[in-house]
Write a structure and sequence with these properties.
By secondary structure, the chain is α/β, with parallel strands linked by helices. It has eleven helices and 22 strands. The structure holds aspartic acid and magnesium ion (MG).
C-alpha cells in the first residue's frame, strides 16, 4: 500500500466530463489499495480568464487582490473533483491552501513555501477520506491568500508529497511524458521512459513546458520520485528519478530542446579593465533580470565585445538599463537581436563523452547554420543560432545523435 500524490493539470479538468474521468482515475488508484492525496490546478484557461478580468478592471491590479482572485480557480476545481468523487461513493474532502495551512512568505503572485502542515491531511487519510487540495495557493502569516507563480500547482503537489513522505508524485496532464524532441517539430521524436532530475531541470529550463521548474528542484531536494502521465488514456509515462536509479544504459544525449525565449545583447568595444562586467550586469541583477549565456572575447587593442542573453520579455528593460551604463564605462554601442533561438542537447553522458560537442558543431556546420554563442553545463550543450534555423537544427541534431533509436551515441 503506497501513498500517492496525484496532481491533475487544467487540461485534465477542462469540463465536468473531464472531472468525472479524473475521479475515475483516483477511484482506480484507491481500488489498487493505495492511499491518495489529490492536488488540482484551475480548469484550463481559468487562470488566464481571471487575470484578464483583473486587467480589464484596472491597469495595475494590486497583487494581494490578484492572489485572492486567482486562487478561486483552484477552489472551484478542488470542490468539483470532491463532488465527483462523492457521487461515486468515495469519501472525499476539498481543502484550500489556508485550510491545511500551506504557509508562505509575504510575496504576492510568486510566494515561496515556508511550512506545510500535514496534521489535517493525515487525519483525513486515516479516516479513509481522499483529500482534494487546491494547488497553487497558500496563506501568509497575515492570513492573506498567496499564490506560488504560474504553474505553481506542480510545486504544491511535490511539496505535499515531500511533507507527507509519499512514495510517489504523479503529474497528470494532456501530455504522456517527455520526448527526445518536440514531436511537432521532429516527427521521429521518441518517448522517454526515464530521466534524472538534473536532465529534467535542464529541459524544463530550455522550454519543455511540462512542469513548473521549481517543482523539479523541490523533488530533487526531497528525493520525491515524479511520474509524468496523461489523463487521456495513454499508457506511456515518464519517470523522473535520482541519477543512481537511472538505467545503466541510458543514452549519452536524452533530448534536443529548442527555446524561443531568449534575446541577445552585445556591448561593443568595452574597455578591457576590471569591473566592466560588474557594471553592465549589476543593474540587471537589481532589476531581477536573469542573464543566461555570457560571452566576453579576449581583448585585441584594449577593447572587448561583451555579449549576453536575457529572456525576450525583459529585452526592452535590459536595453534601457545597459544604455545608461554605456557612457559610464566608455563602450561604443549596444546591439540587440531578438531573432535568435537556443538549441540544446541534454544528457547525462555529456560529462564523460568528449566527442559530443564536436559532433554537434559539425552537424550544424554541415547545414550551413552559424553558431553565434555556445554555453555548456556538465549535462547540457547549448548553441544560439538564427531563429529561422531552429527547427532544422532540432531535426539535424536528433538524427546525428541517433535519438529515434533507443541506443546510445557512440562518439568513436
Ligand atoms: N492555475 C495556475 C496557472 O495556470 C497554476 C497551475 O495551473 O499550476 O498558472
Ligand atoms: Mg500546469
Amino acid at each position: 500500500m503506497a501513498l500517492i500524490v496525484q496532481k491533475f493539470g487544467g487540461s485534465s479538468l477542462a469540463t465536468p466530463e473531464h472531472i468525472r474521468r479524473v475521479a475515475k482515475i483516483i477511484a482506480e488508484t484507491k481500488k489498487n489499495n493505495h492511499r491518495v492525496v489529490v492536488v488540482v490546478s484551475a480548469m484550463s484557461g481559468e487562470t488566464d480568464r481571471l487575470l484578464n478580468l483583473a486587467h480589464e478592471t484596472a491597469t495595475m491590479p494590486q497583487e494581494r487582490e490578484l492572489d485572492a482572485l486567482l486562487a478561486t480557480g483552484e477552489q472551484v476545481s478542488a470542490a468539483l473533483v470532491a463532488i465527483a468523487l462523492k457521487s461515486m461513493k468515495i469519501t472525499a474532502r476539498s481543502y484550500l491552501g489556508l485550510q491545511l495551512p500551506l504557509l508562505t512568505d509575504k510575496q504576492h503572485t510568486r510566494a515561496r513555501i515556508i511550512k506545510l502542515s500535514t496534521e489535517e491531511l493525515k487525519k483525513t487519510l486515516e479516516q479513509d477520506i481522499v483529500p482534494v487540495v487546491a494547488g497553487f495557493q497558500g496563506v501568509n502569516s497575515n492570513g492573506d491568500i498567496t499564490t506560488l507563480g504560474r504553474g505553481g500547482s506542480d510545486t504544491s503537489a511535490v511539496a505535499l508529497a515531500a511533507a507527507l513522505q509519499a512514495d510517489l508524485c504523479e503529474i497528470h496532464s494532456d501530455v504522456d511524458g517527455v520526448y527526445t524532441a518536440d514531436p511537432a517539430i521532429c516527427p521521429r521524436a521518441r518517448h522517454l521512459g526515464q530521466l534524472t532530475y538534473g536532465e529534467m531541470l535542464e529541459m524544463a529550463d530550455m522550454g519543455a513546458k511540462i512542469l513548473q521548474i521549481r517543482s523539479v528542484e523541490l523533488a530533487r531536494k526531497f528525493k520525491v520520485p515524479l511520474l509524468i502521465k496523461s489523463s487521456f488514456g495513454s499508457d506511456k509515462c515518464t519517470w523522473i528519478v535520482e541519477e543512481e536509479k537511472r538505467d545503466m544504459e541510458s543514452a549519452v544525449i536524452s533530448g534536443i530542446i529548442l527555446s524561443h525565449n531568449e534575446a541577445k545583447l552585445s556591448v561593443i568595444r568595452v574597455p578591457d579593465r576590471p569591473g566592466v562586467a560588474y557594471q553592465i550586469l549589476s543593474p540587471l541583477a537589481d532589476a531581477s533580470i536573469n542573464v543566461d549565456m555570457i560571452i566576453q572575447n579576449a581583448s585585441i587593442d584594449g577593447y572587448t565585445d561583451f555579449t549576453f542573453t536575457v529572456p525576450k520579455t525583459d529585452l526592452s528593460k535590459t536595453r534601457e538599463l545597459v544604455e545608461k551604463v554605456l557612457p559610464k564605462i566608455g563602450a561604443r554601442e549596444l546591439c540587440t537581436d531578438d531573432g535568435i533561438v537556443k538549441i540544446s542537447a541534454v544528457g547525462l553522458g555529456i560529462k564523460n563523452c568528449p566527442g559530443v560537442a564536436a559532433r554537434m558543431f559539425q552537424a550544424l556546420a554541415n547545414e550551413g547554420i552559424n553558431i553565434q554563442m555556445i554555453s555548456t553545463s556538465d549535462i547540457r550543450l547549448s548553441c544560439v543560432v538564427e531563429a529561422k534555423y531552429g527547427e532544422l537544427a532540432v531535426r539535424v541534431l536528433h538524427d546525428v545523435f541517433g535519438l529515434e533509436k533507443n541506443n546510445s551515441f557512440n562518439p568513436a
